[in-house]
TrEMBL record:
Family, as annotated: Belongs to the short-chain fatty acyl-CoA assimilation regulator (ScfR) family.
Keyword match Transcription: yes
Name this protein carries in UniProt: Short-chain fatty acyl-CoA regulator family protein
Keywords: DNA-binding, Transcription, Transcription regulation
Superkingdom of origin organism: Bacteria
Domain HTH cro/C1-type: 5-59
Organism from which the protein derives: Pendulispora albinea
Matches recorded under InterPro entries: Cro/C1-type_HTH, HTH_RamB, IrrE_HExxH, Lambda_DNA-bd_dom_sf, ScfR_C, TransReg_Diox_bact_type
Length: 477
């Protein structure tokens, strides 16, 4: 904590005496804080937050754990045979977080350049060309924007909540109020469109010339409300959306356009499920997703997504990690208010219950899962399907999962009947085979990057690559 406090002071070009005076502390007491000779108490932390204008999340262990996981992944795929101990990673993440983040950024840029070079080589029949490092794909930029903000955009969340009260919308039935708002304030007519059988069509189409908002008939009442809320967001909060986009320095017009859509959808969720009432309901109902979606008139997935955004500084909910995958393991959504980490190198862990959900469609599955660093999480997962055509029309099926650190599990109804104190209860999982260092996993698909496989033709084990080492000794890390 002392290192972080010193970094904040030095970034603002303040002396220790000036910082102590600003915080109302003696110079000697402040000096002891920077040298970790005294704990950073809650009252002092609140003063630091007010004086330096920073979020207290800067001092959280979760932020440090997330950075440690990212650094571990970067170093694991560097090709070095030298093993970096967890203590060294923790020291780097806590004492020099800016250096750690720079390493992670360089690693991601290198990996993206290599992936694109490989893809280009495949398209050119294996020919090799000298290619410059390419930037992130637009959707990756937007994903990383929300990840960096812990999936919470406070200025837009607050504006949406104010708009909810101003428009006198009603919990669970905002569609009527939004339709009236669009008509009276903006002269927009909402029409329900009939779609051709088994033909894909946009869920929402707005014509600024005729001021008509066409919604497809197959949308549920909650989905219609969400689409109308998205249009209200563009019409009434478009300038604020643009301000957030301009501050972020996206690299392309496409990324900026995708960011505007993502932020408008964020506002729509906050309009349909306003922060204060939704958080209060979540706490009183012990985060029961089915009860919450019934109260607010929305679907399972959008309720999970909204739960992952409840990180207002003075009224935080449970910090969740939200993810959506398909049967092939492709991750189409990944939003995090906490530090849970999955690798971007290769696939995710097959022992994770989000994949088991496909075998039991429509059921909520629970899992206590422990990562290799010892951190344990409570996960819930369930399938969601979308299909609006007739017979033989294509449908989409995903598994969505919501997870939190086990220290928050007692606040969830899904912890009922689980022994949270039993060290043998959690399922050992990893971030992904290529960065996971578990030595005895029957589901391992690849040895870890940088590890050496020990091959013994006289022995056959259940676990593939069960014995590997970074130093060639034949022992696990």
């Amino acid at each position: 904590m002392g290192v972080r406090l010193r970094r904040l002071r030095e970034e603002r070009h303040m002396s220790q005496i000036a910082a102590a005076r600003a915080l109302g502390l003696s110079a000697s007491y402040y000096n002891q804080l920077e040298n970790d000779e005294r704990p950073l108490t809650v009252p002092v932390l609140l003063k630091v937050s007010a004086v330096f204008g920073i979020d207290v999340q800067v001092f959280s262990e979760e932020e440090e754990a997330r950075l440690m996981a990212d650094i571990r992944e970067a170093l694991s795929s560097s090709g070095s045979e030298e093993h970096v101990a967890a203590a060294e990673l923790r020291q780097l993440a806590s004492s020099m977080p800016s250096v750690g983040r720079a390493l992670v950024t360089m690693h991601r840029r290198l990996r993206e350049a290599i992936d694109r070079a490989d893809a280009m080589a495949d398209r050119l029949g294996g020919a090799r060309h000298s290619m410059p490092s390419l930037p992130l794909m637009p959707f990756e930029e937007v994903r990383d924007f929300f990840y960096a903000r812990h999936n919470h955009v406070d200025e837009l969340d607050t504006a949406a909540e104010s708009l909810f009260h101003e428009a006198k919308l009603r919990i669970g039935d905002v569609a009527a109020g939004l339709e009236e708002r669009l008509a009276s304030r903006h002269g927009v007519e909402v029409v329900i469109r009939e779609d051709a059988p088994n033909m894909p069509s946009p869920q929402r189409r707005y014509d600024p010339r005729t001021r008509r908002l066409a919604l497809t008939r197959h949308l549920s009442p909650g989905q219609r409300a969400f689409q109308m809320a998205t249009q209200v967001a563009f019409l009434e909060l478009g300038a604020r959306i643009q301000h957030v986009v301009d501050e972020t320095r996206f690299s392309s017009d496409e990324a900026r356009a995708l960011a505007r859509i993502g932020l408008a959808n964020y506002i729509a969720g906050a309009l349909v499920m306003p922060y204060g009432p939704f958080r209060e309901a979540a706490e009183s109902l012990r985060y029961d997703i089915d009860l919450l979606r019934q109260r607010f008139g929305v679907g399972f997935e959008v309720t999970c997504h909204r739960l992952s955004t409840l990180q207002r500084a003075d009224a935080r909910g449970v910090p969740f990690f939200f993810i959506r995958v398909d049967r092939a393991g492709n991750i189409s959504k990944r939003q995090s208010a906490t530090d849970f980490h999955f690798s971007r190198v290769g696939g995710t862990c097959p022992l994770w219950n989000v994949y088991e959900a496909f075998a039991q469609p429509g059921r909520i599955l629970r899992q206590l899962a422990q990562m290799p660093d010892g951190r344990t999480y409570l996960w819930i997962a369930r399938t969601v399907s979308r299909g609006h055509g007739g017979y033989a029309a294509p449908t989409k099926t995903f598994a969505v999962a919501l997870g939190c650190d086990i220290r928050h599990a007692h606040r969830l109804v899904y912890a009922k009947g689980l022994d949270l104190d039993d060290p043998s209860a959690p399922t050992p999982i990893g971030a992904g085979c290529k960065v996971c260092e578990r030595t005895a996993c029957p589901q391992r698909a690849f040895p870890p990057i940088g590890g050496k496989v020990v091959v013994d033709e006289n022995e056959r084990r259940l676990e593939p690559y069960a014995v590997f080492a970074r130093d060639g000794t034949g022992e696990g890390p």
